[in-house]
Amino acid sequence: MRFLNIAAAGAALLAVGAMNVTVASAAPRKAEKKVHRMSGMASWYQMGHRTASGARYNPDGLSAAHRTLPFGTKLRVTNSRTGKSVNVVVNDRGPFVGGRVIDVSRGAARQLGMMGTGVARVQIQQLASN
Q1: How far apart are CA 121 and CA 84, in angstroms?
Q2: Which of 18, 22, 69, 80 could form a disulfide linkage to 73, CB 3.0–4.6 angstroms apart?
Q3: Rounded CA gap, 122 and 40, in Å?
Q4: What is the rounded distance in angstroms from the CA atom of residue 15 to the CA atom of residue 36?
Q5: What top-level class of enzyme does the UniProt entry assign (predicted)?
Q6: Which domain CATH number covers 53?
């Protein structure tokens, strides 16, 4: 009978220990916001009347097209050669030319100093959302 009581006590301790581990591991973890940074070639584009997000395209506005970032994502795009930068909002999809990471509106291209060349090597940083 003593053996059964010791075994039962051991099982109870194991169960309590397991519960402690379970409770500790079940604590919610704070979600971390992933900040995107990328670099590559950018181009500027002039398109039709509407963007993929449904917004009216403003060629002189400060917008951008990206393949995967959600619409409304705010980015700082910096021309690697000149150091000029501009803040843009993703409201379209693209670019659809291989080797490019982003398309910017004509207004953004003007501020980046890439109107003449049409393309530029850029650094892209996602800005924190408010």
Answers
A1: 12
A2: 69
A3: 6
A4: 44
A5: lyase
A6: 2.40.40.10
Element (H, E) at 106: helix 106-112
Q: Which residues contact 99 (CB under 8 A, 6 or more apart)?
A: 40, 41
Give the residue carrying structure tokens 């509407």. 50
Question: Using an 8 Å Cβ cutoff, are 78 and 122 in contact?
Answer: yes
**Type and span of the H or E element at 24:** helix 2-25
Q: What's this model's pTM, rounded to 2 decimal places?
A: 0.72
Tell whether 42 is covered by a domain. Answer: yes
Record the tokens describing residue 90, joined without a space.
Answer: 């993703």
CB atoms within 10 A of CB 9: 10
Nearest to 129 by CA among 66, 81, 75: 75
Residue 122 Cα to chain centre, angstroms: 16
Domain total in the chain:
1
CA of residue 84 relative to chain centroid, distance: 22
Task: Give the total residue count for the chain.
Answer: 130
Tokens of 92: 């379209």
